[in-house]
């Protein structure tokens, strides 16, 4: 009788462990495509990502680079003060999107152009994503609007 209880406990532990490992693998696989890493233009120039990798780019919209093409195609460059990356976006830009303002885009870097699927712009006069601020500070071009 004692041996049967011990065997059942071992079986329950094995089944539970297998289920836990399987669920962890499934969750990790499902989340893999949802994780977008942030990169500054300088990082992209130093180590270009593969054309299949989806990631986020952030910086300032470079002055004089905004070109509205035929239809909904918009081209501009994003910079962190150390490098500039050309961006192509098909769609309607956010209302607060402007030259010399912070932006974050999600997409892929293909043939030297960041092909954005989503563009986010700052939401008020002082907001800028923390990743963009860090990248601009690293290049020495960040100016705190509050003077801090």
What can you see in these coordinates?
The chain is α+β, with helices and mostly antiparallel strands and 148 residues long. It is 32% helix and 30% strand. It contains 3 helices and 7 strands. It has helices at 2-32, 41-46, 130-139, and strands at 37-39, 55-61, 67-68, 73-79, 84-90, 102-110, 113-121. The chain has a 5-stranded mixed β-barrel. The protein is elongated. The mean pLDDT is 84.
Low-pLDDT windows of residues: none
Structural class: alpha+beta
Distance between the termini: 74 Å
Beta-strand content? 25-35%
H/E element sequence: HEHEEEEEEH
User: Mind summarizing the main beta sheet?
Assistant: 5 strands, mixed, barrel
Q: Indicate the radius of gyration in whole angstroms.
A: 23 Å
Short description:
With 148 residues, the protein is of the alpha+beta class. It has helices spanning 2-32, 41-46, 130-139, and strands at residues 37-39, 55-61, 67-68, 73-79, 84-90, 102-110, 113-121. A five-stranded mixed β-barrel has the order 2-4-5-7-6.
């Amino acid at each position: 009788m004692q041996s049967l209880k011990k065997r059942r406990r071992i079986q329950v532990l094995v089944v539970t462990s297998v289920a836990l490992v399987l669920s962890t693998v499934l969750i990790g696989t499902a989340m893999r495509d949802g994780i977008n890493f942030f990169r500054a233009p300088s990082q992209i120039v130093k180590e270009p990502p593969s054309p299949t990798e989806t990631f986020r780019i952030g910086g300032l919209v470079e002055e004089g680079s905004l070109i509205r093409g035929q239809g909904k195609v918009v081209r501009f460059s994003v910079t962190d003060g150390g490098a500039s990356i050309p961006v192509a976006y098909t769609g309607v830009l956010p209302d607060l999107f402007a030259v010399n303002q912070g932006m974050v885009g999600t997409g892929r870097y293909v043939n030297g152009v960041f092909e954005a699927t989503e563009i986010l712009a700052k939401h008020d006069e002082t907001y800028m994503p923390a990743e963009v601020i860090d990248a601009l500070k690293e290049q020495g071009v960040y100016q705190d609007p509050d003077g801090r």
